[in-house]
Amino acid sequence: MLGWPSPTYPYLLQSTSVIPISMNQSAMIAGFFMLGAILTTPLSCRYHLGPKYGIWIGMALMTIGWIIMWYSEDVIGLLCSRFTVGLGSGYGLGQVKGYISDLCEPQLAQFLNKQLNFYGLFGILVTFMAGPFLNFRKFPYVPVITCLIVLLVIMFLPCTPKDFVKRNKMDEAATLLDYLRGKRDHSNELKKIQNELIDKKINFFSLLKIANLRRKFLKFILLVFLQQFSGGPTTIVYCQLIFTMSDCPYPEYCAILYAVTFFISNIYGTFYASKLNKKFVLIFSIVTTAFMLISQIAVLYFEINKKYWSFTSLIVMLLFITFYCVGVGNTAIAYVPEWFPEQYKVGMVNTFSISFYAFAIIATKVFQVLITAYPLYIGFCLFLFCDLVNLIFVIIFVKKKSSEFDNYKQTNSVYFWNSKRGNEIEKHINNR
């Protein structure tokens, strides 16, 4: 559903389409998916029926959403479809993360949770590749069949050890842990799971009471805002239209190449660039992205595609999305484990998802208004301005990695660090 607008909008914007839409409605239709995801993301980390059945509920909502798309007769149907799929996506994704965390040891869970980005991007890529060659009514067949298969497979997944412990089936929980961890004494792990179920969850908003964390929270939100307004996600939504308005030949194939580049660059940014110095990578990404945006503005303003080489805009856009994904598109979320204590990690990941979708709605609408009322290059001027603001913000306010002692201090009461014991621990860490 994230990739659906790009290949579908050029058809729906025609007056002869089965559901004619206006350019003004396009941003609203795109935003309803994100609105659904925003509403259910806060619920996705809650333990209701257990993550296995939570995943099933999320998939069921997505299946219903695509069936609505299948039978849509007007714009209301499109809105309901995208909103329902957004509800399922926002809730189901958090349940998938919970399922992985409950089954796997921490390092493996972290690696597998990163894989979720890969599958999401792969879905966008498949949509870009299949969308131009399937008509509006036939396209929903693919996701509906996929969703139904996944719904069936989910029923054969094992429950997690936490599910068994919650039902007081300790023997089944121990048997499952034998299978997952190897045969050994699991009494400590079972006790830990029991404590997790009993212990009252930390109030996420208590983070805002600590001045240091409050500053980092605001920096994080601003990073996500500038990430969205620097153009990456918006160009994915309007990808094929951008190439059509840029006078690129074969815009549907240009969009597919753009999606492939987006896919590869995101994988590199997620799995490799995130291991490097984050601030350096971010500044490099912002500067190169700004240069590509200036180039794209020049190409559009001087009509270089028409006068010289018709694929100039394509090359510039491919370089833009490459540099964007390496740093700007992936660095904000990478700051969560560095800036915030472990007990706030899940809350901050959800905060990222909510703010990511919320700012995407705004950025998409603003871009749509600009390219409707003005020439296309004005929309890219917005991206350039936000990119330059991002550069200034990162240089001034984003520091290098916090010291071990600073991270340790965040997790504890402020009063403790005024004590003699706090000074002794600081001296010990520095000596080490």
From TrEMBL:
Protein location: Membrane
Transmembrane segments: 20-41, 53-70, 76-96, 116-134, 140-160, 217-243, 255-273, 280-302, 308-336, 348-371, 377-398
Membrane disposition: Multi-pass membrane protein
GO CC annotations, alphabetized: membrane
Source species, domain of life: Eukaryota
Stored Pfam families: Sugar_tr
Keywords: Membrane, Transmembrane, Transmembrane helix
SUPFAM superfamilies: MFS general substrate transporter (SSF103473)
Subcellular location, principal: membrane
InterPro entries: MFS_dom, MFS_sugar_transport-like, MFS_trans_sf, MFS_Trehalose_Transporter
Chain ranges of the Major facilitator superfamily (MFS) profile domain: 1-402
Name of this protein: Major facilitator superfamily (MFS) profile domain-containing protein
Originating organism: Cryptolaemus montrouzieri
